[in-house]
Amino acid sequence: MQFSENWLRQYVNPDLDSQELSHVLTMAGLEVEELLPAAAAFTKVVVAEIISTEKHPDADRLQVCKVDVGSGEPLQIVCGAPNARAGLKAPCALVGAELPGFKIKQAKVRGVESFGMMCSAKELGLTEAHEGILELAADALVGQDIRELFDLDDQLFTLKLTPNRTDCLSITGIARDVTALTGAPLSLPQIAPVAVTATQQQSVKVNDPAACPRYAGRLIHGVNAKASTPDWMVRRLERSGIRSISAIVDITNYVLLEQGQPLHAFDADKLKGNIEVRYARNGETLRLLNNTDITLSQDMLLIADDSAPLALAGIMGGEGSAVGDETANIFLESAFFAPDVIVGKARRLNFSTDSSYRFERGVDFGNTVQALERASQLVLDICGGQAGPITEVLQQLPQRKPVRLRLERLNSVLGIALDTALVSTLLERLNFGFTGVEGGFEVTPPSYRFDIEIEEDLIEEIARLHGYDHIPALAPHDEQRMLPSPEASRNSNWLRDTLAASGYQEVISYSFVDESWERDFLGNANPVVLKNPIASHLSVMRTSLWAGLIETLVYNLNRKQDRVRLFEIGSAYHAGENGYEEAGRISGLVYGNAAPEQWATDDREVDFFDVKAEVDRLTAGRAQYVAAQHPALHPGQTASIILDGQPVGWIGKLHPKWQQQHQLPRSAMLFELALEPLLQGKVAAYKQVGKFPPVRRDIAIVVDETITVQMVLDTMRSNKNALISDIALFDIYQGKGIAEGKKSLAFLVLMQDTQKTLTDAEADAVMAELLDLLVQQHGAALRN
User: Fold this and answer.
1) Are residues 113 and 174 in the same domain?
2) Do 138 and 158 share a structural domain?
3) Is Magnesium a UniProt keyword of this protein (predicted)?
């Protein structure tokens, strides 16, 4: 929103200079994006009248002019403008004048003295056009300063308004806010109904009251469409960024800027029958004022007559009913269109208008008729004519519901203490209707404040009016104390440090994956589908972090990195019966040799047990591994990870078909665990260090090859004998001397008593207990 400061000060004139006013507006939420002078700086340029002209004796294109500048004796000035003539009034830069880029001095032009310069608009920095000297009105006062004549000491404000402040898309709205902010008196133009001197009315029908709750218009007969727009109006329009077109169009644009109400003028003689506000029908077309032919869709609201569409409601008029120089009678329209009906339509047609910009955000439905009266008066004053009575179709207007403002809540949010009297004063300055209730106010916003709907909106209004500068910036005050840190809990950084110490590198990948990845790679037929994916191949939420790891692996292999260790800590997402579930995961991928290439060791490809060692570190050795099947992993090298009796993840080798699909020269090893169980550790407990030497006994048993080592270890550890300090496997053997379908497992058993040295008999008794358990549970036999 661009406007002239002098125009604003006609309505409210606070005791502030331009910079101070800019600061006040910005601090109140009406950000001043730009503040520029209305014209370039220049001095000593006055209105002059050319008394006479003579041809220059030595130049065909120059004239010697006698010029009256209002200072007594006429000045002799050499001028080369083709339009210089006797009787013309134009700007004259006197000797010593400073113009944009140069200074005027007394000079000889082809041997003739010249005591100044007649100026064009370009030389004064007013426009880029250079069509001779600038011609002034015949009634311009000779000797008057040009800056005063054209009000060139004006400043142009450009506001960067937020979408909710549509009330400030007009000079009237900005003036109201300035009055509320500064307390300066408000002096808006007095708008009174114009004298009705004609009887004819235009019939209006509104087919959808919800789309157009209020429509008003009037006929004005006998207007002079060729009348000149007054200079003051042209100046205000141009300084608001609107080009002057014709008097009637300029008046509608002027009222738009002044009142915030878009208007439209139809040539009444081009209307056929009644005015109808309706939605477009299939196949209808309309040529707009910008010479664009559009095919209308059924959700577009139109102003039409009995024969055809006339205008796109709230957006742009049609060429067929436009006013022109020959227009004698006009139908002046002012309406309130529902924002939902207008929004997006202009954008769909690849343009925007000042009218649609306002209607999309909402205009003051209480000002519809008043704006029409204002425009009517200007038409009568400038173009003449006779005004008919207003035709108005009024339906159910939007309700301005009271909003409750609690004083306690207000002070709590702002962090300051405002009393009832001060808040009442601020509400009055905003022109908000209110009544006092217990603990606060019931506030009814005016029709032009669409943005006031909830209590927080009122709190914001009070804050900006009271002044953000008056709200102290208090440092937070709180007691400094140590927060509890449970000894058994771990931080996810501990997991990062553990894997980084083993040569892994952390990656962060998208939480979005391809639906086929979830369906085929993970066997998930019910992924969380995104309503608005950023790409077609990222359409669902991941249930595993492996997708990002494998993509990163492929990226590295394509760049000749043949040994890769990656991990990621992130979230996986599931669609459960009670809604969506998000769970933390830690995943890892290992590819290539077990150790970097070096002279001291032979190359060996990483295997299942290398990765199992990493998982054991993450789980502090508490994990158990059970053979299982997973669609992404090798059917013979896959295990489910069990922690405290609950499955928490997977470990295994990438399935050969996925290795082939991703064109991997070798397979990769993968693991993934739920994050939360890994962060729950155990509190360290003191255990007395034995003073007496431990006793080691070995036991070798023969069992079925289907019995896993973990099953045997679990059985032996279930003995709970206090003398046993450790049990570990040190040999597995199948072959000569062992029956087919059997295997030999050899375990070491460490025993220690912290109070005395163990005897052989005590150690033998412990070993006998262990053997009995193994025989009973697994049918084990002592190997000879």
Assistant:
1) no
2) no
3) yes
